[in-house]
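Notes from hallway chat w/ T.B., transcribed later so I don't forget. T.B. wanted the structure written out for a chain they're using in a teaching module, and asked if we could keep both sequence and structure tokens in one place. Agreed to drop them here.
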Amino acid sequence: MPTPRHTFARMCAAVTAALPVLLVGPATVAAPQQPPPSVAVGGERLGLPGVQVSPLAGTPPLPTGLTGQSWIVSDATSGEVLAAYNPHLRLPPASTLKILFADTVLPKFDRNAVHKVADEEILGIGPGSSLVGIKEDLEYRVEDLWRGVFLSSGNDAVHVLSHMNGGIPQTVAEMQARAEALQAKDTKVISPDGYDMDGQVSSAYDLSLFARAGLRNADFRAYCATRDAMFPGAVDKNTGQRGSFGIANTDRLLGKYPGLIGVKNGTTTNAGSTFVGAAERDGRTLLVTVMHPASYQKVYDETAELLDWGFAAAGKVQPVGRLVDEVPAGGAQPTGQAGGTDGVPAPPPHPSATPTRAAAAPDPAGDDGLGPVGWAAVVLAGAGAGYGALVLRRRRSAG
């Protein structure tokens, strides 16, 4: 009769023999990045891999040749998702994370308030960051700082506003709480400006939630729709007069795609190109988010193609999911964090419930109660996790 040790040895051998089969195929790589369909926010189909669309009679075909690793087309008013491709895939968001930053911080300060920048407020900005050109010991109006965020994607403007908000850690914590209130469960905030950081991720679905909430704020909507502006410059040593210089919105669809409102583009080493675009036509506002297509220009081309399809398909497709509403605070109705107008700041972001941590994986070394079957399961789980980590490490590059 075989001993438990012999049984365990045979099971380990069987597991080892099965590993090549278990670790083959793209589904094994993608699985750790996507939540299971049963927990996908917005509907079960949004957790399924591949294109999700339910055409009715007369629905135009989706654009061909799309290269984005993830995209979603939704109605900003109703929240209906018209079509999607891996919308919960967790990817580096680049500067599109500034949408969440604005949704969190913008309502807090009067746009006409003036702030003098201290030297430490523009230190610690990541190498290669996009900057609007803020200088220490100079005064800036809050609305100038926000134009620096939206038009130039200035990480320096983000850092100054974050310090005004209590500091970088405080702002990151508030952004994470805001994401949770919006039910954006794919998002992990590490840096407020979207600069490449280990573990910082979001998804096309979550970025659409952020944009939908932000567009309910009149100031947010105005800033992201601004094509160009004058930004305060340095003081001329000879005249004592302060100069200014022009800045232009880096959104390449703004002013070119009919009805485009905004919202935000981004590009980093890890994220590739990302873009969240909103456009209005015949009283309907659509949101399209595209993440990591084959090239920088394609993020705009594919967004425009998906917007064209969405306007043509609206009313001719069955929704495959929806953008969920904000979690009510204290029993109040979801507000979308609408902002103030005419210099009146909006209420602060709703507090979220105590953050919940995902259950930690059991530590096999600390569990002496595992029998042969349990140890076999640990070996399988560990092998899958190890392979996933190896693939992720290979995909990452320095940013």
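Follow-up for T.B.: DSSP finds ten helices and 13 strands in the chain. Might be a good example for the class.
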